[in-house]
Amino acid sequence: xxxxxxxxxxxxxxxxxxxxxxxxxxxxxxxxxxxxxxxxxxxxxxxxxxxxxxxxxxxxxxxxxxxxxxxxxxxxxxxxxxxxxxxxxxxxxxxxxxxxxxxxxxxxxxxxxxxxxxxxxxxxxxxxxxxxxxxxxxx
Length: 139
Ligand code: B12
Hints:
Blueprint: H1 2-9, H2 15-37, E1 46-51, H3 59-70, E2 74-77, H4 84-93, E3 98-102, H5 110-121, E4 128-130
The structure holds cobalamin.
């Protein structure tokens, strides 16, 4: 997908080819999924995961969700285009330990800050928030 991104950036390939590549990647992940999840022993923590509002990129999120499941996390996937309020509402409802937000666009990154703000307003300071690249809000 990195190569696809480069070629898309250079104007060498276009959106349809990127979509085909994304579908191929998803199909590969479907084959791998059972192997990642079959060995899990007891669940360690519950994580809410989703792609930020205004963003439809989900390959990385799905991959991360799958790896987390394989590592024994209980993953609640909210899908794509998730509003900041929904991340926080669901985290409360599901008694989640962690919120994970995926955002691939410069414009959708800001919605992460909104989730942190809402989470703190709800008095959930001890919850971890993980962002792509492994950065956290330090809590
Ligand atoms: C595939 C792709 C698409 C596909 C998405 C298909 C899908 N179902 O996801 C399609 C064709 C639909 C698409 C659309 C668009 N895209 Co696009 N896309 C890409 C591309 C080529 C690859 C992304 C990808 O899947 N990579 C593979 C996965 C495995 O990697 P990843 O996403 O980075 O995920 C890893 C980490 O980021 C991290 N991670 C990800 N999520 C999370 C979450 C948590 C909690 C954690 C811990 C970690 C984590 O872990 C993952 C595994 O290592 C990138 C370029 C690139 N090289 O990244 C552009 C790119 C992201 N797209 C871009 C753009 C501009 C768009 C469009 C706006 C294009 C347009 N003009 O319409 C639209 C966006 C529409 C929207 N509203 O969202 C730009 C963004 C630029 C920017 N700075 O904002 C990029 C960078 C391309 C470019 N160079 O211009 N895109």
